[in-house]
């Protein structure tokens, strides 16, 4: 039955690709469409020993995967690593970082595209970050007896339900997993519900805690954005609609005495113009991070990708957004990596484990509204040493959680899937 469903899916996918060939969407770049057909540089030659194929969906995943990929490069050589991304932003990041021998987009999973791609890169294993399960691609790998599995795994209940409903399509891909390495126990339970055999599952932790040893050059960052060495910085990171207005209302009476530069980094860069209007309403002097030679006024608006970690690195106080609204928060450990005191809203349900650990250590301050946020910033201004101690506690919490990258490599070596 699953074979019939895979064939039907393949025919449907082929029809979509043929339509796109005839009527290409304007937003798809010529290079992108070529890469999605599995095209590789003509001079690319995979090492004779084969490659380790690492796949991530997006920019955010490859930022998280970076320490893991760098450890693999140290062990096996950069040329042995092939990284594929689902998105162009992820690919641009890979090209910028130059952490693997080959970076490209994941081909559309039609055998006509994936088989030549696989034969060219010669993978000895495919490591899939987090959740992505491509039924045709993984069935092709299974036929070629190339082991594959999920690292840094997580899956939500909605995805489990959807895949169970469409089980004949996913059955072959799931049953042929060589390993599934979830981040946490509740993800482990969901993979079991999905049908992954218990003996193939090992919970090894989350990669997002493994970036702590990579410290950006703070002097270079400050120089780039016109920030003097002694200038304090408050970073409001990964903010969402509704949060910037709360932030600016909280800061409004503090500007006359606030000897600090405020960084506002919307989660989605495309919202930058929306935040510009709010800043203009408040008559605040600001510059964009993308400006050729930005000079730090009251506010720097981050309108570029992949910069947030650099701004956390030079901050004296950080607010992690997505938490004043019912979004569930964002990675609280990013500022913790630099021992930066953390402020967060109450809506952190996507990071319950991290929030529990930070609260136990008294390493974060929760604010619920304009008044709470204003008071927290005022307390920081009046008692910076006390807040600095909470930042050190947050770093200690992060250190206790780190190590998933090393555990994952060791586990794959024990399974004899990596040398």
Strand content: 5-15%
Return the CATH topology of the largest domain.
Rossmann fold
The CATH architecture of the largest domain comes to 3-Layer(aba) Sandwich
CATH hierarchy, class of the largest domain: Alpha Beta
The termini sit apart by 37 Å
Provide mean pLDDT, rounded.
Answer: 92
Structural class: alpha/beta
CATH homology-level superfamily of the largest domain: 3-Deoxy-D-manno-octulosonic-acid transferase, N-terminal domain
Shape: globular
Low-pLDDT runs of 5+ residues are none
Q: What profile does the largest beta sheet have?
A: 7 strands, parallel
General description of the model:
There is one protein chain. The protein has 419 residues and is α/β, with parallel strands linked by helices. It has two domains: 2-210 and 403-414, Rossmann fold (3-Layer(aba) Sandwich); 218-401, 3-Layer(aba) Sandwich (Rossmann fold), CATH 3.40.50. 46% of the residues lie in helices and 15% in strands. The protein contains 18 helices and 13 strands. α14 (333-336) links the parallel β11 (317-320) and β12. The radius of gyration is 23 Å and the shape is globular. The chain starts with a helix and ends in a 5-residue tail after the last helix. The relative contact order is 0.10. The model has no long low-confidence stretch (mean pLDDT 92).
Summary, kept brief:
The chain is 46% helix and 15% strand. The chain contains 18 helices and 13 strands.
